[in-house]
Design a protein that fits this description.
Shape: globular
Order of helices and strands: EEHEHEHHEH
Number of domains: 1
CATH superfamily: STAS domain
Strand order of the largest sheet: 1-2-3-4-5
Helix content: 40-55%
Largest sheet: 5 strands, mixed
Distance between the termini: 33 Å
CATH topology: Transcription Regulator spoIIAA
Strand content: 25-35%
Number of strands: 5
Number of helices: 5
CATH architecture: 2-Layer Sandwich
Length: 122
Amino acid sequence: MVDEDLTTTVVRHLDYRVLALAGEIDMHTAPTLRDQIFALIAEDRRPLVVDLTDISFCDSAGVNVAAAARKHAVGQGVTLAIAGLHGRVEKIFRMTGMDRLIPIYATLPEAAFDLIKTSLSD
């Protein structure tokens, strides 16, 4: 999906899914992003990794989306993780404590490896 300020790309792998984001998460883009994440969570039970590597800006609206997504994922029995936090985006997630509520990975490959390893051990 393409928005003026935020681009989203969904990649479905056998064992997990990725929602790759590029651009800005703010009060204008957050509602659509929330809806897309909720739809992906409802789609099936494979883990969902939200890749923020290409996010240049995120304010409290983005943190609120993450908190709501976590709550929805827990209710649906879906593992939700975040990859690619950096700079100010990482700072806001750590300052608000979201890094203690949602598994955070430095890179997408690291998240994929851990999620696949976890699913094999279950």
